[in-house]
Amino acid sequence: MIRTDLGPVCALACALICTACGTPATCDTRQNAYDAPLIETDEQTGSILLSEQNDSKTLNFKATLNDLPEQWSGEGLLQIGGLQLDLSLRFESEPSGGDGRTEMPRLALTFEEPAASDSSTVTTSNYPGPTPFLYSPSLFEDCRSGAQQCESTRPVRIERLDGAPFPPVRVSFRASANARIPSCDKTSTARVTLGVEVESQ
Length: 201
Prior knowledge:
Layout: H1 7-21, E1 38-40, E2 44-50, E3 56-66, E4 80-91, E5 107-112, E6 119-123, E7 133-135, E8 150-160, E9 169-180, E10 191-200
Antiparallel strand pairs: 1-9, 2-9, 3-8, 3-10, 4-7, 4-9, 5-6, 5-8
């Protein structure tokens, strides 16, 4: 008769099962991703001048996440990350415009996405009001899981569609970047910065 002592084998199997069922090494960040604190940049401001028809400039917004926690996302995705962009229009001379009653030249705004072939264009109204146009393109969609730093660039091309008899138009912008980073680490020091460069076409 062959006798097998199953006692040590069972004990080892139970120990492995208990280890697997214990507290996991990483928490499920998906459960509290939307409760994560919002981190955001200071506001960047500036303006560009578009004098004639087909004049265009590109605002290159570069946002960077720094000091990301090692376990900031199990899926490699931020739950929320975006660029908050306000644009307002005024003539360089009287009438100032931008009051909802004064006709102004239309502008075409092209927002380029991470994929070079993907972009969207919107056209401003002939009668822009005093409230700035607000746009919120997404950021950090291509961040790699586990990375300690992530950069995201959003070019915004602004082209003047109408020329004479309209005088030169001053386009002012206010911009900031933000993100919510799901993390098990409650003491995370993650931060986000934003820079902008103006490129003439």
